[in-house]
Amino acid sequence: MKKFRTSFSGYNKTDVNAFVDEVIREYENILQKLRESTKEMEHLNKELEHYKTIEKSLHDTLLVAQEASANAQKAAINEGKVIIEEAKANASKIVNNSLIKAQNIEREAEELQRKVVSYKRRFISLVESQMDDVDKFDERM
């Protein structure tokens, strides 16, 4: 606590005025620091709000990305199932067509075998007929 000297009419005006000036300077310094602190606090609050906005945006984006990933995965699984079913159906058609072709080839082979047997019989018959003609020719001579 500041003590003032006394003079004839009370406290010494110079001391009091000097003290008041010192108090005013200190008050102005404190007031200036308060203003700077308030500005800094407002600036930091604005930054905090900005970062909170970015955080929320990133969080929302992450949720959307997770949902999109889950949807893409489900779609890929469903598409895979469809492709497998189509492949099974196509494989079944291919097997059925192959069986039909095999049966047709087998029938054609049997037909060719019958034709070979028939041709062989006719050829044998022709050869025998020719042999008979040769034998008859020998008999005439």
Structure description:
By secondary structure, this protein is an all-alpha fold. The protein has one domain. It is 91% helix and 3% strand. The chain has one helix at 13-140, and strands at 6-7, 10-11. Strands 1-2 form a two-stranded antiparallel ribbon. Strand 1 (6-7) and strand 2 form a beta hairpin. The model has no long low-confidence stretch (mean pLDDT 91).
Please provide the ordered H/E string of secondary-structure elements: EEH
> C-alpha Rg, in Å?
58 Å
- Total domain modules: 1
First-residue to last-residue Cα separation: 174 Å
User: What fraction of residues sit in β-strands?
Assistant: under 5%
| Tertiary shape | rod-shaped
- Number of DSSP strand runs: 2
User: How many helices in DSSP terms?
Assistant: 1
List the strand order in the largest sheet.
Answer: 1-2
Q: Report the structural category.
A: mainly alpha
Helix residue percentage? over 70%
Report on the biggest sheet: 2 strands, antiparallel
Q: How much is the average pLDDT?
A: 91
Task: Flag low-confidence runs.
Answer: none
